[in-house]
Amino acid sequence: MAEKSIEIIGLTKKYGEHVAVDNLTLSIEKGEIFGLLGPNGAGKSTTILMLLGLTEVDSGSVKVCGIDTTRFPLEVKRKVGYLPEDVGFYNDYSGLQNLLYIARLNNIPVEEAQKSALETLADVGLEEVKDNKVASYSRGMRQRLGLADVLIKKPEVIILDEPTLGLDPEGVKKFLQLIVDLSRKKGITVLFSSHHLHQVQQLCDRVGIFVKGKLLAEGKISSLAEQLFSKNTFTIEGEISSPPENRTPEALQEVIDKIKGIKEVAKVELKNEHFVVESKKDISPEVSRLLVNSGYGLAYLSKKKYGLDDIYHQYFQEEK
Amino acid sequence: MKNNVFQAVKLKLTAIKIPKLQLPDAPLPIFKNGSLGNDGRLTLSPFKAMVKKEVSDHIRNWRFIILFALITLACLGTLFSTLNDGMKALVTDSSDNNFFFLNLFTKSDGSLPPYFVFVGFLGPLFGISLGFDAISSEQNKGTLSRILAQPIPRDSILNAKFLAGIIVISVMLFSLSFLVLGAGLVAIGIPPTAEEFMRIMVYTVLSIVYVSFWLNLSILFSVRFRQPATSALLGIAVWLFFTLFYPMIANLIIKGYEPSKFASPRAIYFYEKLKFYLVQIMPNELFDEITSAILVPSVRSLGPLTMEQLHGAIPSSLPLGQSVLLVWPQFTGLLSLTLLCFLLSYMLFMKREIRSRG
């Protein structure tokens, strides 16, 4: 898997004083589904625009399918399908006509365009409404037509900018499933940006977290947690239930010290009977054994797993 | 000698440059061979598709239909008023010229202004209405980024808009000219002379250039301003400024220089020159001069003439070639204004960041 679909090195974009994208380096392999995750205004869209040569690059280089975007934007656009955020269509034309127009712009001969337009419309499930004017389409249908638009040129890479914005949960699910299926079937690289954690979590092979123009972390979601929370990946929360006579601070402190004695434990916090243990490995059996052996009861003990939510919040806290 | 050296250097430079310039093009045919055809004919077809779409959009547009109806009605109205009353208007002062057909375009019985006034007046409106939302509407609909994500050069969207506008304008103006010509043919019963026919064709072509100036100006505004209403109003404002306010301002300035009755001929000449040059900046004035020189063959000069220059001239009409020569500066000015607008829209558009709607 040495083949890189997208290679970004040291990409920077400034708007006046404001740095929208700051020295971004990122590479995406062929056939991968990559999620670009970040809050609004993080520079996701700007990065995508630079990938397509729709805005000037201040410094750094962008290569898509091995082609330099700044120098050969047309070649890149031939291979990349881009679905802009909040895509628009010619409302007076039917879905099919809109699609055919894009096919013509891609220099697909008329007969072939007709054929593949119908196929693509079937793929995205718009067969029945293909002759209706786009003005009558619902948001979900427009989005699917946008996907058809992207697919008709048979791209090697698809770039979707906030594709699920404004869709209802069911629509989101279907739409994303459609993308995944198509990508897997045809081996298309997919890059998509979103600020919805859960969608990204569901379908991406890898994600990159993007805040204020910087890529803070990238990788598989499981490994992301490790990157972000440096060493102490495992966190155990629990509450000690103990007879009142044992509940002196000194006694509790003693227990805590014992827990600290376990190998791999990095940090223990105690607040009344509630404690939080951070460690490099899963040590919940040791902790519970230790507590019980010391004559304490355990009200509850829970392992905390990091999802993207936590990753996200962690970052926002840092930013603040 | 110096020139020769310069040219030699220039030649060398181009000789070096040519292979360099072709380098970026080199990968192109490879990709084309791979997937989509292999000849140059096909590369033009996306552009053709765009122009086709723009033209059909214009023609189906209510805005166009209304304006076209308006201009056609005005044109028919003048035609009837000209041909009314046994064509008195046509023949009244034609003692010195026999250009009946040209009179169809320039004379009327007074109840309605003649054809050329309508074209001069409604043409700008037509140009503005075709172009004022060319780019901004695509942007507001969110289609611009979708189109530009396709493998087409960025300028082809501007070129397609412009070319489609010109095609529509040409078709309209030519059909109106032929309409007037045909109606005149039926009514008068004499076919136009070759000279008259050529004059009318030249006039039509030049009026296309005039309308395309306004088209370009409004495309420029549509590139610059996000709101179509802003660019439409600005287009109309420029038009009003040139038809109403600029002449007033020019008048004020000229008044200040008005020489007395006993001023030297030099002062009078300067005054006349000033009067002439001050209005040369107005596109509508340029077009008026073009119209009068082309459609009225007896017009010999557009600026002031001294008595010496007139001395010995035979009062007769000019041949077409001379008339065209007469308006060549005006035509060049109009064309350069058009190109200037086009250039500015290019500069604004090519480096611009294309966001989906914002």
From TrEMBL, chain A:
Database matches in SUPFAM superfamilies: P-loop containing nucleoside triphosphate hydrolases (SSF52540)
Alphabetized InterPro entries for the sequence: AAA+_ATPase, ABC_transporter-like_ATP-bd, P-loop_NTPase
MF-aspect GO terms: ATP binding
Keywords: ATP-binding, Nucleotide-binding, Transport
Domain ABC transporter stretches: 6-237
Pfam families in UniProt: ABC_tran
Cited CDD domains: ABC_DR_subfamily_A
Family of the protein in this entry: Belongs to the ABC transporter superfamily.
Listed name of the protein: ABC-2 type transport system ATP-binding protein
Annotated organism of origin: Zobellia uliginosa
Automatic annotation (TrEMBL), chain B:
Transmembrane parts of this sequence: 62-83, 115-136, 162-188, 200-221, 233-254, 327-349
UniProt key word Transcription: no
Keywords of this entry: Membrane, Transmembrane, Transmembrane helix
Entry protein name: ABC-2 type transport system permease protein
Phylogenetic lineage: Bacteria, Pseudomonadati, Bacteroidota, Flavobacteriia, Flavobacteriales
Superkingdom: Bacteria
Keyword Cell inner membrane carried by entry: no
Pfam families per record: ABC2_membrane_2 (PF12679)
The species this protein was found in: Zobellia uliginosa
